[in-house]
Structure formats: structure tokens, C-alpha cells
Design goal:
8 strands; 385 residues; Dehydroquinate synthase-like, alpha domain; two-stranded antiparallel ribbon; Rossmann fold; ADH_Fe/GldA (chains A, B); methylglyoxal reductase (NADPH) (acetol producing) activity (chains A, B); homodimer; alcohol dehydrogenase (NADP+) activity (chains A, B)
Chain lengths: 385, 385
């Protein structure tokens, strides 16, 4: 086990009546709030109006900024920073999923900084202060509701960059599984893949003697796999939605990484994919992860075999390669979510494989469970064909 | 799943070199610290001197208060409160196990209150402020290093009372598994039973649809069971000590209780036992828990069967009562730790059964998984004979 630090200060307020606590929570952080969200669905569901009413009852003054898109953009972040400075905003309330929360985190940091907020993403500035941030989560996927990081895309060159710090962890996260009933099956499935990937990126590690962290990860993965068909079968299955939602938070708050080195190659390999093609992050991960697993099975199969046995239910006395059988069952599971598991299923051909692999890592090495050269990454794209 | 709130703000600093961060951490909370500890072992191991040196290097002024005993006493807490007020102490550093940390929590609360600290334990005063508290953990057992509660014994009437609040969670907890090498096997085993009991009290619940919380609990219990023989076999097995230590924290930081009602009858039944007899809390729990399980198996066996299968490894097609077999295997495990599992093994006879049961609950009902009358509690003491 490696040395580690862990804390999870975000107050998780989970359940059917959790929005009722919005007023008392947001009031802890001042009287002027920036209400940040995407657009259509939050309005259509009536959540936006309920939030507005609650904030009014709490005597909180509201400035609104909507329009967050998937892969949240720097231009909107800059607009948010300007608004917060202009109106002397005390805190930010993000209503939405990972993109909205990430955008809000960047605004929270940029407001407390004299220079340009992009400086944090280039390493030019160090994060030390940020506005307090509260969250109402509507999409279980990215885990941003209690994580310390944010990923923003700069439209000038389409650079996707991340930054993070403990100060960015939301102060509170209101999580009502009922708010996820209206998620379409495709978005539900993408979220499920995303949260599983957050666990798997930490799980596939060469660090030995991490039994507790392994077993916690296997517990979360098994729970997600058991509840995924339930939420796809019945979008209003409260308990299954709740299991998925809570798992998505724990998948990315740091707990599943305690004491070990993570991998994160698949995320990078997927980023290049969604950089060129219009494919959702979760769908891209559903394609990349099995291919990455197949590549790793050839050189480092041990943890894949453990995954196969403990998560995918392959019996220890399976007649054949346990790791490969586990990967096959994982693919079958992904297909059951109606996720693509081959590039061809997302209409992606082989013409950019070399370019994406080179952009991904150049002449360096990517990942930790197996260190990948750009030639290996091309091989992984081929395995995903 | 029930609605819940969860946060775990304590900064866990875990690993071989974690004490090196003491100076920088404690300095965040002022320049005058109360150093609170038990006695012999912390001095003998050299840890006390190392802490003193580190605090001196950090330029922190130290006032010392030692002498904490198991079942920490109100008189020493009052002494601590007086010292903190007299010396304008900024923060408290607890070096030890649960008793030291609980004592420190009470001092932290009492220092910020004009009245008598016992008022918090009787409900006369509401907790709103406390000095910041840091911890160097030397005994993995009680989970107090990141929990929000404290239990103190008032020698005037030997009343053992608890109180809690988010403000009492330690700011940081330094957890170096090497510091637990010197724990004698008996104390190691008592700690293991204590942390398992913290999980089991939450696990045995009638709340349905708590799959993630169940599986996380099973993950932690399995890890503890697998690593217990290793630390008893080799006191300096770093990795096994680390698994046990981290499991002890997660057992009681609230995570394993998310979304469900806990039971806590066994803790109460044990408290009466250790109120009359000189028996360690962990040893008492090793006697009470199997008896409680046997009683519950008669009326509500379902979760006991799940425990048997998922934690104690009883095969689903076991020829016999799965729950009873699980309890038998749990007893065998406790015996392997050299823990007593019968009252007779702790030289306790039946003469106080009625008295203890009546003190425990009077004419009311205790617990949730099965609601127990005092007659049921007598039955449980009999099952433990």
C-alpha cells in the first residue's frame, strides 16, 4: 500500500426531500448567488423554477448564467467570472451534471483571481482561493459533485485541460435520485460507463496489498452492474436510481484510489477520440476500455483475472482464460446498455489512429498498469475496430 | 434506501511518513497546543519525544495533559478544559487511541463553553463550537479519528454518556501503521472486534435496497477477516496493519451507514456488561455479538444468511441453516483472535442478567433489526453463557 491522503468534506444531502435543504445550505455562504446551469431540461422539468422559488424564500439574490454545453467552454467560464465580479457574488449554485459543475468550479476559481482564469489550466497560476460552490446534481456520471477537479475546453485551439485543488470541492451536493428519472436511456448509460471507468482507472494498478481499496471498488462495480438494467428497464425505479447515483459519487471522490497508483490511460485514449469525433465521453469509454483490457491481458493479466472473478462472476475453475472471459462478459454488459463497444458501431474508421496515438503521448509512455507507447495505442485502437 | 447526509472532512494522512506532516498541519490551527495522551506506551515507544521535537521545530508552544484511561473520565476532561482556558490554547493534539481522542473531543467542546462540559452529555447544552483537534492514531479500533462523537464516563455515578456533532470531527488524522506494531495481540484483537462491530451494527438493518452500502460493508468485513490473522502472526506486517487501520476508520466515519437505519443493540448490551465487570469493550462485543445473532436468527434470519454467504463464505447450497453456520464461523474467527466468545470464558456468571437487562432498556425496546425487550436481553445473556 502506498501512502495517501484522503478527505471528502462535501456535505452530501441525499434523498427524496433533499432539495428542501437548499435554502438553509446556500444561506451559509452569503446572500448573492450565481445560478449556473445548462438549459432545456432543467427548465422543462420545473426544477429551475423550484430553485428560483426556494432561493427567493431564503432571501438570496440571484444572478443567472445558463448555456453550459457538454465539454464546458472557457468563453462561458470567463463570462461567469465577469458576472461574479460585477455583482459581488458570494457563492455559486450549479444545477446539472458534470459539465455544469466543472464550469462552476472554474468560475469559482476565476472570480478570486485577478488574471485570466485559463492561467490555472496552463499552470501559470496556482489555485489558492475560490468562491464556495453548492450543487444540485441531475446527472450521475462525472462525480464532479464531490471531486476536487474540473475539465474545461478552450475554444481557441480546442484545448481540453484540467485543474484541481481541495478548495474546489463543492461545499454541499444535493442529490435527489428522482431528479434523474427524466434522463434518457442513452445518457443514463453513458453516465454508468463513466462512473465505472472512474473506478476501473484506479482499480487496474500494480500497487500490491490494497485489499480494502480493491474490495470497495469491486463492491461499487458490482452494485452498478446489478442496478444498471433496473434503471434502463424502469426509469423511475427510485432505489436503483439511488444506488447508481451514490455509486457515481463514491467512484470519483478519491476513496477508490486510496493507497495505490491509478492508470488513466483509457481516459486519455478516449479524449483523443472525442477530440476528433462527435462521440459522448461514456460511449467512447465503452469502446476504448474493452480494447485496452484486451491489450493489457497479453502482458499483465493478473488484475484482469481478479476483475473477471470478483466483478464479472467468472468461476475460478473456468475452462479457459479467465481474464478474457471477464472482458467478454464486460462487453456483453456494455452492449446490454446499448453502448457501442466497437469504433465501427460509432462510424469511426482507422484513418486517424496514428494521429490520435501521437497526439495522445508522442514519444512518451502512457498509463501505469501497462505503460503504453504510441504504437501500443494504435494497437488498442485496432483492437477496438 | 433512506435519505441520508454524509461528509467526512477529516484530512486522513496515511502512511509510513505521515508524522512528518504534523508540524505543517498543526500550524494551520494556531501556535499553542494541548498535547493530550495516555501514558506509558506513547512515552516508551519514543513517539512522545518525536512529537515534542516536531512541535518545537514548528514553533508551536505545548501544554501537556497525560493520564487518559480506557473509558475516559470526566475529571480529566474538566482538567483539560481548565488548562486550555488558562493557557489560551488554540488547538488540541490527541496522540493515542479512541479513549484519548474522545477525551480530547470533550475538552475541545468544553473549552468553548462557559458552563460545565458535562452539560453537553446530559443535553443541557447544545454543541456549537469546539477547538480544532488533530490526531496521531496509535490504536485502530474506535474510529474516533474521523467520527463526530465522543463517549465520556462521569465518575460521579459511573455514568457513561455520549455526545456528538460535526464540529467534533478531527481536522486531521495522522495514521502510520508502523505505530501499531507495538500493540499487544490482545489489544490488537479487541480493536479488530470493535471495528467489525461498528460495521455490523449498521449492517444488520431492515432497510431494504441498500446494495452499495451492504457491499461496501462486506468489503470491509472481509478485508478485516483476511488481515487479522496476518497481524496476529506478524505484528510488523506493514500491509496487513495498514488494511486493518484504514478499515477501522471507514468502519465508523458514517460511510457504512449511508441510507439505512442501524441497530446498536449489541453495543448497549455490552455496555451494561463492562459497566459491572472489568472487561475490555472489544472482548465484551466478541461475547455479545454471536449471542445477539443467535437470538435474531430465530426471528429475522435473512440478513444473517446474507452475512453468512457473503462474509463468512458459507456456500449458497450449504446443507443446513446458512445463518447458523455463518454465526458458527464468525465465532470460530473470534476464537482464532483469542477473544472470549462466552461469558464463562470471561468468568462472568448469571447473577446480574436481570439487573443488566433492566438497566439496559427498562420496559422499553432496544435495537432495530429485532426490537428487544428486557426479557429478550436476558435471553441473549443466557445464549452467551
Amino acid at each position: 500500500m502506498l501512502d495517501f491522503q484522503f478527505s471528502c468534506p462535501t456535505k452530501i444531502i441525499f434523498g427524496k426531500d433533499s432539495e428542501q435543504q437548499l435554502g438553509s445550505q446556500i444561506s451559509l455562504y452569503g446572500r448573492k448567488v450565481l445560478l449556473h446551469y445548462g438549459g432545456g431540461s432543467v427548465i422543462k422539468s420545473g426544477l429551475h423554477q423550484r430553485v428560483i422559488n426556494t432561493l427567493a424564500e431564503a432571501g438570496v439574490e440571484v444572478v443567472e448564467l445558463s448555456g453550459v454545453q457538454p465539454n464546458p467552454r472557457l468563453s462561458l467560464v470567463r463570462e461567469g467570472v465577469a458576472l461574479c465580479k460585477e455583482h459581488n457574488i458570494d457563492s455559486i449554485l450549479a444545477v446539472g451534471g458534470g459539465s455544469v459543475i466543472d464550469s462552476a468550479k472554474a468560475i469559482a476559481a476565476g472570480t478570486c483571481y485577478e488574471g485570466d482564469v485559463w492561467d490555472f489550466f496552463t499552470g501559470k497560476a496556482q489555485l489558492s482561493e475560490a468562491l464556495p460552490l453548492g450543487v444540485i446534481l441531475t446527472i450521475p456520471a462525472a462525480g464532479s459533485e464531490s471531486s476536487s477537479g474540473t475539465v474545461i475546453t478552450n475554444e481557441d485551439g480546442w484545448l481540453k485541460r484540467s485543474m484541481g485543488g481541495e478548495i474546489l470541492r463543492p461545499k454541499f451536493a444535493i442529490m435527489n435520485p428522482e431528479l434523474t428519472y427524466s434522463l434518457p436511456p442513452y445518457q443514463t448509460a453513458c453516465g454508468i460507463v463513466d462512473m465505472m471507468a472512474h473506478i476501473l482507472e484506479r482499480y487496474f494498478s500494480n500497487t500490491e496489498s490494497v485489499e480494502l481499496t480493491d474490495r470497495l471498488s469491486e463492491a461499487a462495480l458490482t452494485t452498478i452492474i446489478n442496478n444498471a438494467p433496473k434503471v434502463l428497464d424502469n426509469a423511475e425505479d427510485y432505489d436503483a436510481r439511488a444506488e447508481i447515483m451514490w455509486a457515481g459519487t463514491l467512484a470519483h471522490n478519491g476513496l477508490m484510489g486510496t493507497g495505490r497508483e491509478g492508470d488513466w490511460a483509457s481516459h486519455q485514449i478516449e479524449h483523443e477520440l472525442s477530440g476528433i469525433y462527435d462521440i459522448a465521453h461514456g460511449a467512447g469509454l465503452a469502446i476504448v476500455f474493452p480494447a485496452w483490457m484486451k491489450f493489457c491481458q497479453r502482458v499483465n493479466p493478473s488484475k484482469l483475472a481478479q476483475f473477471a472473478e470478483r466483478v464479472m462472476g467468472v468461476p475460478a475453475d473456468f475452462d479457459g482464460d479467465i481474464a478474457l472471459e471477464g472482458i467478454a462478459r464486460f462487453e456483453t454488459f456494455l452492449r446490454s446498455l446499448a453502448m457501442p463497444v466497437r469504433l465501427s458501431e460509432a462510424d469511426i474508421d482507422n484513418r486517424h489512429f496514428e494521429e490520435m496515438a501521437t497526439k495522445c503521448i508522442g514519444d512518451g509512455l502512457l498509463g501505469n498498469y501497462v505503460q503504453l507507447s504510441r504504437f501500443d495505442i494504435v494497437e488498442i485502437y485496432k483492437l477496438a475496430q
